C-alpha cells in the first residue's frame, strides 16, 4: 500500500469500493449484468445455419471484456469445509473464496500448470495482511480515543 496516503483515506476508499462491488454483485445476481446478456445473445446466433455473427462480437473491446482471466465465486457460509472454482481461460485463475468465518477467509486458487498460482496466492495473502493491519490499527486508534 502507498505509505504516502493517510490510513483514514485508504479506509474510506476501500469502503467506497466495497459498496460499489456489493451493488454490482447484487445487480449481476438479479440478471442486471451486461455480460450474461451479451453471452446469451451471442449463443442465440445460429452460425451453423448460415446466420451471420453480428460485428459487435468480433470487436476488440468486446473480445477483451469477454476474456475472464480472473474467474471468481464465493460462499458466505462456514458450513462448507472446502470449495473450488476453476479457471475459464488457459492463462487465467479460478478463485473460490469463503467468508463465513469470524477469524479468516478461505481461498481456493486454481490454474493450469502454465500459470502457476503460487505468486498469485502470495499476493492475495499480502493484500489480506495489509488490510487486516490497516483496519486493526484504525480500530486501536478508535479504542484509545474512546478511553480518553
From TrEMBL:
E.C. number: 2.3.1.7
Gene3D superfamilies xref list: Chloramphenicol acetyltransferase-like domain (3.30.559.10)
Gene Ontology MF terms in the entry: carnitine O-acetyltransferase activity
Coiled-coil zones: none
Enzyme's top EC category: transferase
InterPro entries attached to this UniProt entry: Carn_acyl_trans, CAT-like_dom_sf, Cho/carn_acyl_trans
One protein family per Pfam: Carn_acyltransf
Keyword list, A-Z: Acyltransferase, Transferase
Highest taxon in the source lineage: Eukaryota
Residue stretches making up the Choline/carnitine acyltransferase domain: 2-125
Family the entry assigns: Belongs to the carnitine/choline acetyltransferase family.
Official protein name in the record: Carnitine O-acetyltransferase
Protein source organism: Thanatephorus cucumeris (strain AG1-IB / isolate 7/3/14)
Amino acid at each position: 500500500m502507498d505509505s504516502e496516503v493517510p490510513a483514514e483515506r485508504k479506509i474510506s476508499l476501500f469502503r467506497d469500493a466495497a459498496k460499489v462491488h456489493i451493488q454490482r454483485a447484487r445487480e449481476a445476481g438479479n440478471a442486471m449484468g451486461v455480460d450474461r446478456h451479451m453471452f446469451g445473445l451471442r449463443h442465440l446466433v445460429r452460425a451453423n445455419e448460415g446466420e451471420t455473427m453480428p460485428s459487435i462480437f468480433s470487436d476488440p473491446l468486446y473480445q477483451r471484456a469477454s476474456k475472464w482471466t480472473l474467474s471468481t465465486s464465493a460462499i458466505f457460509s462456514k458450513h462448507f469445509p472446502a470449495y473450488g472454482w476453476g479457471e475459464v481461460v488457459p492463462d487465467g485463475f479460478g478463485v473460490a473464496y469463503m467468508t463465513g468465518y469470524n477469524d479468516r477467509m478461505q481461498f481456493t486458487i486454481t490454474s493450469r500448470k502454465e500459470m502457476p498460482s503460487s505468486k498469485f496466492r502470495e499476493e492475495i495473502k499480502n493484500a489480506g495482511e495489509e488490510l487486516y493491519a490497516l483496519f486493526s490499527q484504525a480500530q486501536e486508534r478508535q479504542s484509545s480515543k474512546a478511553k480518553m
